[in-house]
UniProtKB/TrEMBL annotation, chain A:
Residues 330-424, 429-524, 621-733 form the Fibronectin type-III domain. Residues 954-970 have a biased composition (Low complexity). One of its GO terms (biological process) is positive regulation of cell population proliferation. The lineage of its organism: Eukaryota, Metazoa, Chordata, Craniata, Vertebrata. Residues 1-27 form the signal peptide. The gene is OSMR. Belongs to the type I cytokine receptor family. Type 2 subfamily. It is found in: Membrane. This is Oncostatin-M-specific receptor subunit beta. SUPFAM superfamilies: Fibronectin type III.
UniProtKB/TrEMBL annotation, chain B:
Pfam families: PRF. The lineage of its organism: Eukaryota, Metazoa, Chordata, Craniata, Vertebrata. Belongs to the IL-6 superfamily. Keywords: Cytokine, Glycoprotein, Secreted, Signal. The keyword Secreted applies. It is found in: Secreted. This is Cardiotrophin-like cytokine factor 1. It comes from Balaenoptera musculus. Forms a heteromeric complex with cardiotrophin-like cytokine CRLF1/CLF-1; the CRLF1-CLCF1 complex is a ligand for the ciliary neurotrophic factor receptor/CNTFR. The CRLF1-CLCF1 heterodimer binds SORL1 (via N-terminal ectodomain); within this complex, the interaction is mediated predominantly by the CRLF1 moiety. The tripartite signaling complex formed by CRLF1, CLCF1 and CNTFR also binds SORL1. It comes from the Eukaryota. Residues 1-32 form the signal peptide. The gene is CLCF1. The keyword Iron does not apply. One of its GO terms (biological process) is positive regulation of B cell proliferation. One of its GO terms (molecular function) is cytokine activity.
Length: 977, 230
């Protein structure tokens, strides 16, 4: 061989200079120039395939050569790729090289040329290139149709995350072409007059039907598009494993990951390949595959799972021993056999694996969902195991799973079976307690017992037997049978002592007896009461043992609040116990619980030891007492709330706060202190720290003042709610004295008023007669001062009446008198009145002159003198004119008014009395002149004020009327002078 | 109609009897009394019309789902591409004058042929559909369209028109050619649905027109007896 090599090298060295010489001299192309260069286009894969040969090689000659390949786009001068391809060349051997274009090949013409160079170590100086081959054109555009617009690459399949270059070729050379990716416009690079390219980076999967890219001429309507299929990246199968249930079939499973299927690409396929046997199988399912175990007892397997799609292959391998991958089938026919109260036998079966294979089975026993027993049993086909230490009347679940004994790989699936153990007699005496009371003079015992726990009942309790035995005198045992749900009974006994046995019975038998001894005397022992503090855990109750022979203690309480019927609860405690924690879900904050501690003697009798009361959590009082206010004086009042119960409050009442709001600016009374209420008002507060003191006297108050008070209890937590204040007013200090004086006075005034009313006529006569005394009139002074200083009152004694004319009108008629019309019409007299004008002077004595005239109010027909009475002369003017007559103007006005009224209402001829006043002036005496002299006090019908006129002045010319009157008067009686 | 009461002569009695027999003889020929006769093509035209409207409604929902499945721009409401490919789909659009000049038979024949083709393409669509739900919807629609074809065939038979016979070898097949790109295939699908919609609209119009044409005039039902011999 060495000799051959030497010869070859010599030959080559001799040959090469010769060729070099030839080429230099003859300028011929190198004989190693690539020849027959052919270029083909694979549009689907966007690859250019090149093939060429090197003919110039000697026969059987092999040389290492390097080929430099140039690729131009659009035109030869636009070189876009240069690559040196090294390979070993043989004579007439076709060489291949391919290149993938980023730009779809349809979008541009490509030109390729190459040259070569020997690159063989056997040739010392080979380093020069051959001539370039001629340019070869690869133009896929020639195969396009006549459509105006094309988009490439067509239906390309890529993986997620790839970069894709898209281009369009337009035959219409328009600028207004826009391209869209899934409806969103994209912008690219113009490569040529009719070609543009768009680079899509990191493309993602959108839908199985592919991502749409299309371009359109904006107004021309030409449209072209492609669908880009983006596949999800094929994942490596995860959790690949194989196992067998029967050593005949292997089942391999894996997690396939995401589906890479598209409408262009089916979902990835899975192939299982076993290297030792060289067999393979195409899996029908995405995540599992069966493999038939060969009969030639192959033990070791090397499986390779290959996942594959159009773009990628992924594989995963495992190597295992068949017997180490046995996963037995689920056992079957699991049943309990011979089930008793405390034991049961379980039987089951398994599927055999191979010949004489044993399985390790695990039998588990569960009670209330928890595994309480676990047993391993090795079996071939049939399994059996005796479960012991079971509880009577209890539901259990037995479950079994098995594994291959030779090599543990996995437990089989579980099979479960439920069963109940048989019943047994109750194992413990019921917990019994009693409550004693006197009903109609007989001691009555209420017996309570707690239902036995499931552990001790050992079955369904059907009834309770209560046996009552008289300890004081021999008598027949009394037996009561109480059906099961009952938890109490009541016994009426006499004054003897009794021993009571209580037993619980189920289907199998009775429980041990619970014994309690009851003395006939309820013995309401008085014991000290204490308090107990509640905590989150309950009440911590402790006591002092009294006697040394206690066999136990019982703490008794009611679960509910005091105002509800007592649900008696109790707790049995051992003889050496002196404290316990009483807890109950029924305990609520703010409820007072009373605990009674009993000592159980050796004779099974219970004696009350202590009483305790406590709150789980004390609360502030929820309501305030109803306060009664009494003994209100000007300086104090008493508050009392005796009905307020301190027992039924949500905490231990420690005392009371008395709030008092004095009037503004006033200081707090002594024993009160100033405080600020939550609503920022200031008031006085007094604290009573004795919960049993339910009265309070508020003292040192101001009389005639308004106070507001309010009483609220308080516990360790706080005081009661702030209610409305009650308002009171302290009375006046002297009011009682005033009452003593004012009341009699009012009484006296009333008496006087009544008397006055009854004697009003008399009073009138005495106090304000109808005819006033001229001497007392103010008119006198008026006249005196203005007209005649010598004017004096005419004394009747001084006046000698000339005549009084009385016109006797034949028919009686009512005379309307203005102002008193009503009274006149109402009072109708049948006799003419004869009035004596009595002198009003003090010195008047004896019968005075009597002027008898017919009063308007008198009927003329009844002018009976016998009926004359003495009347004080008073003007017959309306009462309202009496007062104002004191002034001259008023007087004149009143007279004028009277006159005018008379004119209006009294017919001239009807006035039957023409009494001429002595006061009338001579001019005014004429009746006829009345209408022309209205201010004159000349009246046609009324009484005129009688005044004494001096004689000189009283020379009135006698008128016709006046003379007539005088005559008449004279004719009637002389006692008028 | 009946012999008048009274005492007719003996010769008159025979005449009456002959008249009665003649009336009874003619009764089955009175159309208004013939209840077992053929109701004509009216009900089947109505039924076909109703089915067309129902398919229109059904297609609206199916097209929405399918075009979403194709993705944008096919599901865009204003997408109105030029009809690239899809040349083999029967066109529903026709010049109004031409349409008016068609007779009933031609119209029905065109309808029948169109739906036969469309149904075939639609089944191809169904085979390609990737989701099970879409396949169910398409299968349901195909069944309804098959019913419409049968209904049109029924109308044609009722009117006495022969069914068009497909020429051997021209059975439409859904075979996208190898040069057919996926984008053009999507365009075909788009046009298939669009043509279906237009065809259904056109058919509704055709059957409504036919229905009105076949409806007898309201006052045409009169009892007309020819009492020969009276």
């Amino acid at each position: 061989m060495a000799l051959f090599a030497v010869f070859q090298t010599t030959f080559l060295l001799a040959l090469l200079p010769l060729r070099t010489y030839k080429s230099e001299v003859l300028s011929e192309p190198l004989p190693l120039t690539p020849e027959s260069l052919k270029v083909s286009v694979n549009s689907t894969r966007q690859r250019l395939h090149l093939q060429w040969t090197v003919h110039s090689l000697a026969y059987h000659q092999e040389l290492k050569m390097v080929f430099q390949i140039q690729i131009s786009r659009f035109k030869t001068s636009n070189v876009i790729w240069v690559e040196n391809y090294r390979t070993t060349v043989k004579r007439n051997r076709v060489l291949h090289w391919s290149w993938e274009s980023k730009l779809p090949l349809e979008c541009a013409a490509h030109f390729i040329r190459m040259r070569s160079m020997v690159d063989d170590a056997r040739i010392p100086k080979p380093g020069f290139w051959s001539n370039w081959s001629s340019w070869e054109e690869a133009d896929a555009q020639n195969s396009l149709g006549h459509d105006p617009l094309f988009v490439f690459p067509k239906d390309k399949l890529v993986e997620e995350g790839s970069n894709v270059t898209i281009c369009y070729v337009s035959r219409i050379h328009q600028d207004n072409i826009s391209c869209y990716l899934e409806g969103v416009q994209i912008y690219g690079e113009r490569l040529d007059r009719s070609v543009s390219a768009f680079e899509l980076k990191n493309v993602s999967f959108i839908r199985k039907k592919g991502t749409n890219v299309f371009c359109k001429v904006d107004q021309g309507g030409a449209l072209g598009g492609i669908v880009l299929f983006v596949s999800k990246v094929l994942e490596e199968p995860k959790d690949f494993s194989c196992e067998t249930q029967d050593l005949k079939t292997l089942t391999c499973t894996w997690d396939p990951g995401s589906d890479t299927g598209l409408s262009k690409q089916p979902s990835q396929s899975y192939t299982l390949f076993e290297s030792f046997s060289g067999k393979k199988t195409l899996c029908k399912h995405r995540n599992w595959c069966n493999w038939q175990v060969a009969q030639d007892s192959q033990e070791t397997y090397n499986f390779t799972l290959v996942a594959e799609n159009y773009l990628r292959k992924r594989s995963v391998s495992i190597l295992f021993n068949l017997t180490q991958r046995v996963h037995p089938m689920t056992p079957y026919n699991l049943f309990p056999k011979n089930v008793r109260a405390t034991n049961a036998t379980m039987t089951w079966k398994v599927h055999s694996i191979g010949n004489n294979s044993t399985l390790l089975c695990r039998l588990e026993l569960l009670a209330e969902g928890k595994v309480i027993q676990q047993h391993n049993v090795s079996i071939k086909v049939n399994g059996e195991y005796l479960l012991s230490e079971l509880e009577p009347d209890t539901e259990y679940v037995a479950r079994v799973r098995c594994a291959y004994t030779n090599h543990f790989w996995k437990w089989s699936e579980l099979i479960s079976q439920k069963f109940n153990t048989a019943e047994a007699a109750p194992s413990e005496a019921p917990d019994v307690w009693r409550n004693m009371k006197m009903v109609s003079g007989h001691p009555t015992v209420s017996l309570f017992w707690k239902p036995l726990s499931k552990v001790h009942a050992n079955g369904k309790i059907l009834f309770y037997n209560v046996i009552v035995e008289n300890l004081d005198k021999p008598s027949r045992l009394e037996v009561l049978s109480i059906p099961a749900p009952a938890r109490s009974t009541e016994l009426t006994l006499d004054q003897c002592s009794y021993q009571i046995h209580v037993t619980a019975h189920n289907n199998v038998g009775p429980s041990p007896a619970s014994v309690i001894v009851i003395s006939g005397d309820p013995g309401n022992e008085e014991v000290e009461s204490g308090r107990v503090n509640g905590t989150e855990d309950g009440f911590s109750v402790s006591w002092k043992p009294q006697s040394g022979d206690a066999t136990g203690y019982v703490v008794e309480w009611c679960d509910g609040p005091q105002d509800l019927p007592c649900v008696l609860q109790w707790k049995n405690l051992g003889p050496n116990t002196t404290s316990t924690v009483i807890s109950s879900g029924a305990f609520r904050p703010g409820v007072r619980y009373n605990f009674r501690i009993y000592e159980i003697s050796a004779k099974r009798m219970a004696h009350l030891l202590e009483k305790k009361a406590g709150y789980l959590e004390e609360l502030a009082p929820s309501d305030n007492p109803q306060v009664v206010m009494s003994n209100l004086t000007s300086h104090s009042f008493t508050l009392s709330w005796k009905d307020y119960s301190t027992e039924s409050q949500p905490g231990f009442i420690q005392g009371y706060h008395v709030y008092l709001k004095p009037k503004a600016g006033e200081q707090c009374p002594p024993a009160f202190e100033k405080t600020v209420l939550p609503e920022d008002s200031v008031c006085c507060k007094h604290t009573i720290d004795n919960p049993e003191q339910k009265t309070f006297v508020v003292e040192n108050l101001q009389p005639e003042s308004i106070y507001e008070f309010f009483v609220t209890p308080y516990t360790s937590v706080g005081e009661g709610p702030l209610d409305a204040f009650t308002k009171i007013t302290t009375p006046d200090e002297y009011s009682h004295i005033l009452i003593r004086i004012i009341l009699p006075m009012i009484f006296c005034v009333l008496i006087v008023m009544i008397i006055c009313y009854l004697k009003r006529q008399w009073l009138k006569e005495k106090c304000y007669p109808d005819i006033p005394d001229p001497y007392k009139s103010s008119v006198l002074s008026l006249i005196k001062s203005k007209e005649n200083p010598h004017l004096t009152i005419m004394n009747v004694n001084d006046c000698v009446p000339d005549a009084i004319e009385v016109i006797n009108k034949p028919e009686g008629s009512k005379i309307q008198f203005l102002g008193t019309r009503k009274s006149l019409t109402e009072t109708e007299f049948t006799k003419p009145a004869c009035i004596y004008l009595l002198p009003t002077e003090k010195n008047y004595s004896g019968p005075g002159p009597c002027i008898c005239f017919e009063n308007f109010t008198y009927n003329q027909a009844a002018s009976d003198f016998a009926s004359c009475g003495h009347f004080p002369v008073t003007p017959q003017a309306p009462p309202h004119q009496l007062g104002p007559l004191t002034s001259p103007e008023n007087l004149l006005k009143a007279l004028e008014q009277n006159y005018m009224n008379s004119l209006g209402e009294i017919p001239a001829g009807e006035a039957n009395l023409n009494y001429v006043s002595q006061l009338a002036s001579p001019t005014s005496g004429d009746k006829d002149s009345l209408p022309t002299n209205p201010p004159e006090p000349a009246l046609c019908s009324e009484y005129k004020m009688q005044m004494a006129i001096p004689l000189g002045l009283a020379s009135a010319p006698p008128s016709e009327n006046s003379s007539l009157s005088s005559a008449t008067l004279l004719g009637q009686g002389e006692h008028y002078r | 109609m009946l012999p008048a009461a009274g005492e007719p002569a003996a010769g008159d009695s025979w005449g009456m009897l002959a008249c009665l027999c003649a009336v009874l003889w003619h009764l089955p020929a009175v159309p208004a009394l013939n209840r077992t006769g053929d109701p004509g093509p009216g009900p089947s035209i109505q039924k076909t019309y109703d089915l067309t409207r129902y398919l229109e409604h059904q297609l609206r929902s199916l097209a929405g789902t399918y075009l979403n499945y194709l993705g944008p721009p096919f599901n865009e409401p204003d997408f109105n591409p030029p009809r690239l490919g899809a040349e083999t789909l029967p066109r529903a659009t026709v010049n109004l004058e031409v349409w008016r000049s068609l007779n009933d038979r031609l119209r029905l024949t065109q309808n029948y042929e169109a739906y036969s083709h469309l149904l075939c393409y639609l089944r191809g669509l169904n085979r390609q559909a990737a989701t099970a739900e879409l396949r169910r919807s398409l299968a349901h629609f195909c069944t309804s369209l098959q019913g419409l074809l049968g209904s049109i065939a029924g109308v044609m038979a009722a009117l006495g028109y022969p069914l068009p016979q497909p020429l051997p070898g021209t059975e439409p097949t859904w075979t996208p050619g190898p040069a057919h790109s996926d984008f053009l295939q999507k365009m075909d699908d788009f046009w298939l649905l669009k043509e279906l919609q237009t065809w259904l609209w056109r058919s509704a119009k055709d059957f409504n027109r036919l229905k009105k044409k076949m409806q007898p005039p309201a006052a045409a039902v009169t009892l007309h007896l020819e009492a020969h011999g009276f």
